TrEMBL record:
Protein's name according to its UniProt entry: ABC transporter permease
Keywords, ordered alphabetically: Cell membrane, Membrane, Transmembrane, Transmembrane helix
Record-annotated membrane-spanning stretches: 6-30, 42-59, 65-84, 91-113, 133-159, 190-212, 224-257, 269-290
Compartment list: Cell inner membrane
GO cellular component: plasma membrane
Topological category with respect to the lipid bilayer: Multi-pass membrane protein
CDD domains cross-referenced by the UniProt entry: TM_PBP1_transp_TpRbsC_like
InterPro entries to which the protein is assigned, alphabetical: ABC_transp_permease (IPR001851)
Provenance organism: Vibrio agarilyticus
Any one GO MF annotation of this record: transmembrane transporter activity
Length: 309
């Protein structure tokens, strides 16, 4: 396989992995504070619908981005009010949020189904885009792909080199001890949940404004669920998360690659590849219970009540 063939495959994997990277990054930060939000699929769909509707009716893609982020944050705020203020079960509430977001996005976007627009176009970075092999791959992308690169670097720096990251980890590991030190645990968790919602909305906007600039019901195709598995696969580490996102992106296009090489396998069977990969990864990870327990934030999914401190 020569470089001329490898490059477009890697390019497709990068584009396919970008929405997974963005939404999984938001969920990782959220889970680092102990909040488990299973509503990623619903938030992502709302972001995709709001982003497309905003861009379609205003003719401005950046208005669409803003509305997508706002829609994701609104859904995350609803989740936070229920789980962090009213102390409802996080798993049940997250699942309900996905169902709610799926139905609401289909209802609000019903008049736009099948509509298209001119989405974000690649922006070539002078000189760097001319580099052999890596130039077209990394430096001739649309603005949202570049944004995903910046988000990963910024998130890593904040989590590992700043007081904010230390606070986030402290809240996720032992919220009662953090509260005793004067950290406003619920405020931190609210902020992390809203950040997760913003990332879910942005990931949805990438799908409807860049990857396939159109709106159709359930266009996320389970990416929110894959992102949840991706966070576990990465053991809550940002570097592994980026690698895993692109690996899952490659798994998503593997059926196209195999068809291009002439494999006589049913397209429907090959299209199952990313979901089979998700199940396989979860099985492998679950086989090492001790390692998984050590990597998981200690308070993940557990409600916090300062009165019980």
């Amino acid at each position: 396989m020569d470089l001329l063939l490898i490059q477009p495959i890697l390019l497709a994997a990068l584009k396919t992995g970008t929405p997974l990277l963005i939404i999984a990054l938001g969920e990782l930060i959220c889970e680092k504070t102990g909040v488990l939000n299973l509503g990623q699929e619903g938030m992502m769909l709302m972001g995709a619908m709001a982003g497309f509707a905003g861009a379609f009716y205003t003719g401005n893609l950046y208005v669409g981005i803003a509305l997508a982020i706002g829609a994701g944050m609104a859904m995350a705020l609803l989740f936070s009010l229920l789980t962090l203020t009213l102390n409802t079960n996080q798993v049940a509430t997250g699942l309900a949020l996905t169902i709610f977001g799926t139905g609401l996005s289909a209802f609000l976007g019903s008049s736009l189904v099948g509509s298209t627009l001119d989405g974000f176009q690649p922006i070539a970075i002078p000189l760097l885009s001319q580099l052999p092999f890596l130039g077209p791959l990394l430096f001739n992308q649309d603005i949202l792909v570049y944004t995903s690169f910046a988000l990963v670097g910024t998130a890593w720096f904040v989590m590992h080199k700043t007081r904010i990251g230390l606070t986030i980890r402290a809240v996720g590991e032992n919220p009662h001890s953090a509260n005793a030190l004067g950290i406003k645990v619920r405020h931190v968790r609210y902020a992390a949940a809203l950040f997760g919602g913003a990332m879910a909305g942005l990931a949805g906007a990438y799908l409807s404004l860049a990857y396939t600039p159109m709106w159709m019901e359930n266009m996320t195709a389970g990416r929110g669920w894959i992102a949840l598995a991706l966070v576990v696969f990465a053991s809550w580490r940002i570097g592994y998360l980026a690698l895993g996102a692109y690996l899952f992106g490659f798994a998503s296009i593997l059926h196209l690659v195999m068809q291009g090489f002439g494999f006589s396998i049913s397209p429907n069977l090959l299209a199952m590849t990313p979901y089979v990969a998700t199940i396989a990864v979860m099985v492998i990870i679950s086989s090492n219970a001790l390692k998984q327990k050590l990597a998981t934030p200690m308070s993940l999914g557990k409600p916090f009540d300062p009165k019980l401190n």
